[in-house]
Amino acid sequence: MKDCIFCKIVKGEIPSKKVYEDEEILAFEDINPVTPVHILVIPKKHICSINELEAEDERIIGKIFSVIKNIAKEQGISEDGYRVVSNCGENGGQEVKHLHFHILGGKKLGTKVA
Ligand code: 5GP
Ligand code: ZN
Q: Per residue in 64-108, pLDDT tens?
């Protein structure tokens, strides 16, 4: 989608530090990490947010979680634990309107989610 930062990252028009890529999923380091490990996992297909998911997207979302599991292991945070977050819409604090999952780890996170 035109003017979408993450679509530009998918197309290579904006550089990123990729940690995983296949034909339909991309994972890359967050440009402004808030934890020692902060990776974003996205479908290459432009989906604005969880609100725009359709039945046909169920398979890719399942695959994204398998990718998250593998990345966590590769990053060495599986055993200690980590958090997966997808912000949705205004109240959710979503800044980039391309569905993404934050993998946050490498330190003890707060117990509050809001
Ligand atoms: P949101 O608040 O939408 O859930 O999170 C968007 C995330 O994307 C933020 O953590 C922000 O640091 C990250 N981000 C925004 N622009 C870029 C970029 O150009 N490259 C990378 N790697 N991350 C970005
Ligand atoms: Zn996009």
A: 999 999 999 999 999 999 999 999 999 999 999 999 999 999 999
Catalytic residue among 38, 46, 100, 102: 100
Q: Is the pLDDT of residue 54 over 90?
A: yes
Clarify whether 100 is annotated catalytic.
yes
- Buried b or exposed e, range 28-58, using 16+ CB within 10 angstroms: bebeeeebebbbbbbbbebbbbeeeeeeebe
Mutate to test the pocket of ligand 1, among 3, 4, 5 (most ligand atoms within 8 A of CB): 5
